[in-house]
């Protein structure tokens, strides 16, 4: 007779994870519009700046505070993730096309070994990535990314403007980034 404990433990873990996801997407996300994949927040509905600090893949440290005044595009990725590999060229192309407008990009590598992550980035992207194997940095977002890949666009004040839960293409991402960059440049707010 087989033990039912492993099955019960698995069911308990799934229930706990589901409860955590439900709690983490509470009132902050409800203030914004969502189509199930993309969450977009109007300027007066944007949540606070997430705390993003840590070790960069290539060495050194990063703190989101250094990029205040710029639009920051944060992408959660892993070398093991096929959609992440598919979107890498589009992310880099969008970065190159928008960086002169005061836009910067930051990757957050999750659930990976450092060697695999560095090898993945080499020759693909030129923007920095934080190394976060336990995926803890995602917990700092009031509107959680919840998937890998996921892309979060922070406005010039560091607030969450858009969350895209899934792979992006340049055709989808670039207009979003340009719009967020232009709205605050036009209003003069920082």
TrEMBL record:
It comes from the Bacteria. Residues 36-182 form the Thioredoxin domain. One of its GO terms (molecular function) is isomerase activity. Keywords: Cytochrome c-type biogenesis, Disulfide bond, Isomerase, Redox-active center, Signal, Signal-anchor, Transmembrane. One of its GO terms (biological process) is cytochrome complex assembly. Pfam families: AhpC-TSA. It is found in: Cell envelope. One of its GO terms (cellular component) is cell envelope. SUPFAM superfamilies: Thioredoxin-like. Residues 1-21 form the signal peptide. Its main location: other. Gene3D superfamilies: Glutaredoxin. InterPro entries: AhpC/TSA (IPR000866), Thioredoxin-like_sf (IPR036249), Thioredoxin_CS (IPR017937), Thioredoxin_domain (IPR013766), Thioredoxin_ResA/DsbE_sf (IPR050553). This is Thiol-disulfide isomerase or thioredoxin.
């Amino acid at each position: 007779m087989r033990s039912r404990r492993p099955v019960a433990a698995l069911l308990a873990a799934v229930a706990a994870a589901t409860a955590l996801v439900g709690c983490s997407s509470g009132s902050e996300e409800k203030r914004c519009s969502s189509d199930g994949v993309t969450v977009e927040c109007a300027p007066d509905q944007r949540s606070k700046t997430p705390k993003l600090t840590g070790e960069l893949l290539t060495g050194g440290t990063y703190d989101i505070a250094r990029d205040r005044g710029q639009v920051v595009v944060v992408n959660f990725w892993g070398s093991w993730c096929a959609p992440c590999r598919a979107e890498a060229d589009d992310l880099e192309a969008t970065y190159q096309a928008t960086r002169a407008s005061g836009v910067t990009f930051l990757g957050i590598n999750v659930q990976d070994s450092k060697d695999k992550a560095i090898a993945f980035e080499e020759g693909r992207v030129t923007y920095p990535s934080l190394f976060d194997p336990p995926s803890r940095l995602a917990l700092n977002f009031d509107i959680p990314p919840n998937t890998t890949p996921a892309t979060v666009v922070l406005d010039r004040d560091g607030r969450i403007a858009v969350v895209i839960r899934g792979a992006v293409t340049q055709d989808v991402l670039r207009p979003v980034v340009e719009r967020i960059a232009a709205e605050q440049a036009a209003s003069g707010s920082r």
